[in-house]
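Q: Structure tokens for this one, please.
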Amino acid sequence: MKGYAFEIKNNLLEKKHLDNMGISVWLFMWMDDKITKIDDHKKGWVLGGKPIKYKQIKEELGISRPTYVRWVAQLLKYPYIEATRTPYGISFKVLKAHKKFRRDVAKMKHLVSKNETSLSKNETSNIRHIQYDNNSKTSSEDKPRVELLKFFIDNINPHLKYNNKTQNQACKDLLKAYGFTKVSENLAEVIKAQKDDPYCPRVTTPYEFWTKWAKLKIYFERKI
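A: Here is the predicted structure, written as tokens:
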């Protein structure tokens, strides 16, 4: 996204990389900036695997088609990237990817870690209970549901209410079916995809996330 800083490992400045990449380093940095997820093989998926056409590269980098073809070939040669041709463009992956994602994704990963770890008595005493109806406060067993709903309210849809029965039930259904870890990780990927790809199914509430789970699964499988 334009206007945001992104991280490049400083070993990119070593002579061997300068000799290998040359000026194609600009295309490599563009791809690194567009990584939306890193898989178990340390491969960074550029725009989640979305096929990229030369038109998009021209609009953002202003380079000619021959230059684009030459730079891609240069990055494939050593290699720094992988490329898969599709009928709609080329899907790229950056090898040995290293990237810190933005705050929304990091926050969901923090929630995963916090809810997977047993809290000590001192930690428990410091938890701020969130009141979601007029009669009771959140129990420790129900905390993952409230954390999930709270994340939607704080980061996606501030108009949601804690006492909304439909949204609370959707949170329960999601957590029961898939568990907090999977729900949180998938939601983080959906948030990234929604920002980078207008074709990603829109999710603004837990209920939409629950009812569109299968549709979202198909969406991400098509990007692989």
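A few notes: The chain has ten helices and four strands. The radius of gyration is 21 Å.
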